[in-house]
Amino acid sequence: MLYRGDAITGEVKELNKGKLSYKTDDMGTLSVEWDKVAHLTSTNYFDVENRYGTRYFGRLAASEEPGELLVVLSDTVRVRMMNIVAISRIRASFWSRLDGYVDLGFDFQKANSNRQLNGAGEVGYRGEKWAGKLSGSTYFQRQEDAEGTSRNDLALQARRLFGNHWSALIFWSLEQNEQLDLDLRQTIGGGGAREIIHTNKMTFQAVAALAYANEQYTGEEGSTNTVQLPITADFAFFRFDSPKTDVTSNLTVTPILNDWGRVRIDFNARLAYELISDFTVGFRFFDNFDSRQPSTGVSNNDFGLTFSLGYTF
After folding, report:
1. pLDDT tens readout for residues 271-286
2. pTM for the model
3. 150-156 long-range contacts, Cβ below 8 Å, gap at least 24?
C-alpha cells in the first residue's frame, strides 16, 4: 500500500537503488519509489538489508504503523522502511538478480573521414553471500591523414559478502591504450572492501587490494611485471524523480611497489538521464595517468569525454 492510499496487488521482486519492483497480472512489472510505500506484505521469503549492513531473512508482513516492515521467520523483527536499502527474493532465479547497462555512441564527419565509436557496458549479480560484476568499454578514432587511436578494457570481479557492509574480492582485468603505447596490461589480484554509505539514493565504497600485473608496451622488448597496491573509491548517486538520473564514478590510485615512485591514477565517471522507459542519454569521462611508464617519448596522460545512448536493465 502507498501513502496516498492506493493498494496494489502483485508479486514483490526486489528493492534496489530506491525502486521497489513487483509483477502484476494486468500491468506487467512495475516500479515505485520506496519512500512512497507505506505497507508491504508477501508470503515469499526475502533477504532484507538495512543501511547499517544488518540483514534479516523471512516473510514480509505489514505493521499497524505506516512506514514499518515486519520480517517474520522464527521471530518477528520490526524494521523502519526508511532504513531498508535492499530486498532480494530468496531462491529467485539467477537471471532475475542481474542488473546493468549498455551505452553506445558513434560519430562521423565526411570532411576529414573522421570516425569515432565508443561503447561501454556492465552487468552485475548480487546473491545472498556472493556478488559479481563484468564490465568493459571500447573507444576508437580514425581520421584521414592522421594516426588513429584506440582504448579498450575488460574487468571481471567476484565478491564474498560479509556483515556490516564488508566484503572480500578477487578480480582480473585486461587493458589496452594506443595513446599511452600500452599494447596489453593483464592484472589479477584480491583485497577487501567496505561500503561506507548505502542509502536509497547513493552509495560510497572504499577498496584496498594487492595485485600483480604484466605490461607490454609498443617498441619495448619483452614485458614488465609489477606488484601493485590499488586503492579505489566508488561513488554512485541515483534519482528517480523526473528526469531520472544515474551518476557513477570510480577513482583508483595505484602505487607500483616494485618500481617505487611510479603511480597510476585512473578516473571514470558516467552520467545518464532517462529519456523513456529504460533508455538513456548521457556522457562518460575517463582519465588515465601514469607518472613513469616504461615506454618513452609518449604522453603519460590520456583523457576523453564521450556522448552515448544507452539501455539499462
Report:
1. 998 888 789 999 999 9
2. 0.79
3. 150/176, 150/177, 150/178, 151/176, 151/177, 151/178, 151/179, 151/286, 151/302, 151/304, 152/176, 152/177, 156/132
